[in-house]
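Reopening this one. Same input as before:
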Amino acid sequence: MSAFSRVAGSRRLAASTFKSAATYASVDGLRKTPLFDMNVSMGGKMVEFGGWAMPVTYGGKEGGIMHTHLHTRASAGLFDVSHMVPVRIHGKDRATFMEKVLVADIQELPENMGTLSLIPNEQGGLIDDCIVTNAGDHLYLVINAGHEDKDLVHIQKYMAEFKAKGGDVSLEVVEGGGLLALQGPKAVDVMTRLCPDVDFSKIKFMSGHKMKVGGFECFVTRSGYTGEDGFEMGVKREDTVALASMLLEQPEVLAVGLGARDSLRLEAGLCLYGNDLDDTTTPSEAVLVWTIGARRKQEGGFVGSDKILGQIKDKSATRKRVGFTSTGPSAREGSPIFTKEGEKVGNVTSGVVSPCLKQPIGMAYVGKGFAKAGTELLVEIRGKKQPLTVTKMPFTTANYFRG
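Same output, byte for byte:
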């Protein structure tokens, strides 16, 4: 059976998260990844996401959300994430500058290691979340799809001020390339087969390295968005289809769309910008204070640090991001949350029926007095109030490789 015929089915997603490309005059109005034609040929149901035409599911019985989600948890799933935006930061003062616009401790980030970080605004809200890696002679930053107009404008504003004071730093957007994510417990078996000269027992979680994958030059990070062990591979545009085809020819691998990517990340307790994070959300509210380096908490100096560090110190955040389980239909973004006495105390930001737990799960923001695990609340779905229980995240066990 060919790799193309082994992928794909379809299940309904929250309309607030993805928009069908059919609602647009033409998919020609959307940006396309190097795998667009390949995705279509595999029966990909193309939707709009961040201004890109992306596959939400694939065709056939095996391409739906449930099957591809469970396959990724058990074996290996391949995701086209070429809509993400890689950026290289150059110059001898790059680390000093990036500590102005990120909350991470960039100065102490070891070579070839990466970390999740946040891009705050002047009010302490979050412009974006991102991954930053110390790639040796530059910093490698990956920001969210469709965020160039806000993230890069913000970074370049502060870069211009930094350079005007004599700082040596520059920014290079890596445009047009491919970015593939291979996720799941058997992803390392596939990579070992295709990279026989690499000892993956020595490749740490969140580390990034240049290597050949099946003969193709790639920048590979051991990271992902599913809660599983996995790898993200940056590859030249002209090599993307060939590399994806080679990966799909491996017996462990199925192509997976955005639908299962969303349910996988939600089970893993990972935020989706635009749903669970936005320009008004602070790190304390989002329970992401751990992304702020210890030295950075002491010294500050990043955009919005007075607000962010002040809120950490005086514990003044009035709401918190929480996980929850519920009964009945799955709660969706915007669903209001109430106490049993009828007081509104929050809103759902993400929700799905967990393929692994076989019950509705989600994330929400609630008043901090209602954020303790085990708190019983009610969520309104289609005019009816259903029981909701605040719970710890992740919902499923994280399986990141720790060495």
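So the earlier flakiness isn't reproducible anymore. For the record, The two ends are 35 Å apart (CA to CA).
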